[in-house]
Amino acid sequence: MTVTGWAADGADAVEHVTAAPPDVVVLDYRLPGDDGATVASRLRRIVPAAALVMLTGLQDDAVLHEAIGAGCTGFVSKDEAFDELVGAVRVVRDGGAAINAKHMARLVAKPRPSSRQRNLTARENDVLKLLASGSSSRRITDTVFISLNTVRNHVQRVLRKLDAHSRLEAVAIARREGLLDP
């Protein structure tokens, strides 16, 4: 097993993987900029042959569902032994799925959150409300004091979490489900 590189954030990971596609990519869920699931989805489109392992310290079922939904075939908690991570890398490299029994039980016992349980972050809720008021991305940057790229990332996560294809559809879904209520 050879480590071919490491990245400081999601954009850096995409750049490295695009330049030299590895057999396996290990992603932390908490990355600067995009979360690990967003980066995993992007990597799945760019290098579909690469196996993806999500590494996280979060014990949140939503993170597990997001990782699997993004195309990760391995899921390892940071509280597990280092041997678990090495074993997961080997299993996914060989085409298998590396999700231990504890995580598999959580995955099977609790289905993917319904449309009423969107798990939007506070910032995603802020961005959604600004979208509902008709704000452009540029206006959102000025209102919440974040970069244009960060606004775009939040908008993409909102669209994904609401299963929407456009900003307008996201706002319509949010209104229908009461997500925009004060």
Description:
The protein has helices at 10-19, 36-46, 61-69, 82-93, 101-109, 122-132, 137-144, 148-161, 167-176, and strands at 24-28, 51-56, 74-77, 98-99. The protein has a 4-stranded parallel sheet. It is α/β, with parallel strands linked by helices. The protein folds into 2 domains: 10-109, Rossmann fold; 122-175, Arc Repressor Mutant, subunit A (Orthogonal Bundle), CATH 1.10.10.10. It starts with 9 loop residues before the first helix and ends in a 6-residue tail after the last helix. The radius of gyration is 17 Å and the shape is globular. Helices cover 52% and strands 9% of the residues. α1 (10-19) runs parallel beside α2. The chain contains 9 helices and 4 strands, in the order αβαβαβαβααααα. β3 (74-77), α4 (82-93) and β4 form a beta-alpha-beta unit.
Strand content: 5-15%
Task: Please write the string of helix (H) and strand (E) elements.
Answer: HEHEHEHEHHHHH
**Spatial gap, N to C terminus:** 52 Å
Which architecture of the largest domain per CATH?
3-Layer(aba) Sandwich
Structural Rg: 17 Å
Mean pLDDT: 83
Number of helices: 9
Strand order of the largest sheet: 1-2-3-4
pLDDT under 50 segments (min length 5)? 110-117
Tell me the CATH superfamily of the largest domain.
Response regulator
Which term fits the overall shape? Answer: globular
CATH class descriptor name of the largest domain: Alpha Beta
Number of strands: 4
- What is the total domain count? 2
Q: What structural class results from the helix and strand content? A: alpha/beta
Largest β-sheet summary: 4 strands, parallel
Helix content: 40-55%
CATH fold description of the largest domain: Rossmann fold
